[in-house]
Amino acid sequence: MSTTATATAVAPLTIQDAEALVETARRAAETAGVAVAITVLDAGGHLLAFRRDDRAVLIAGETSTRKAYTALQLNAPTADLVDAVQPGGLFHTLPTALDRPLLFIAGGVPVHRDGRLVGAIGVGGGAPEQDHGFATAAAEALAA
């Protein structure tokens, strides 16, 4: 007799979800007077949404995308990983060992639905703690 576990399907991150994430993060940044870029990736690492403020530094687009990718791949906020890449840290060699766009600076946050990883948001352009706050606010608003 064979027993099989049935997994409950979790709805994937939609374009509507991605747009809501971008809008929430954008409003939080605008309220703080910070020009940012925002990237939203689905669970497969595919781009769902991207926005860069006209006044955001150009590199903000790249950093927001790498932060989202890092948060997605490691299923953790990038703010929680900063110490792990320091000398002696668990992931010290990870940034140079892989040919992947990882970035261990605060501002990337995984997005969960019903306890499952469905994507990630990355924000770049402000101070790392600001970017983290904007991304977290967006992820929390979507989860509510």
Structure described in brief:
The protein is of the alpha+beta class and 144 residues long. Helix content is 38%, strand content 19%.
Keywords:
four-stranded antiparallel β-sheet, alpha+beta, 144 residues, Beta-Lactamase
Walk me through this protein's architecture.
Helix content is 38%, strand content 19%. The protein has 4 helices and 4 strands, in the order αββααββα. Strands 2-1-4-3 form a 4-stranded antiparallel beta sheet. Strand 3 and strand 4 form a beta hairpin.
Secondary structure elements and their pairing?
Elements: H1 15-32, E1 37-42, E2 47-52, H2 59-74, H3 94-97, E3 108-113, E4 116-124, H4 128-143
Antiparallel strand pairs: 1-2, 1-4, 3-4
Q: Roughly how many Å apart are the termini?
A: 42 Å
- Helix percent reads 25-40%
Reading off the top of the CATH hierarchy, the class is best stated as Alpha Beta
Contiguous helical run count: 4
Largest sheet: 4 strands, antiparallel
- Described by the principal axes of the CA atoms, the overall outline is globular
Q: Taking all residues together, what is the mean pLDDT?
A: 90
Widest sheet: strand order? 2-1-4-3
InterPro entries: GlcG_carb_metab_protein (IPR052517), PduO/GlcC-like (IPR005624), PduO/GlcC-like_sf (IPR038084)
Organism: Streptomyces lavendofoliae
Protein name: Heme-binding protein
Pfam family, one: HbpS-like
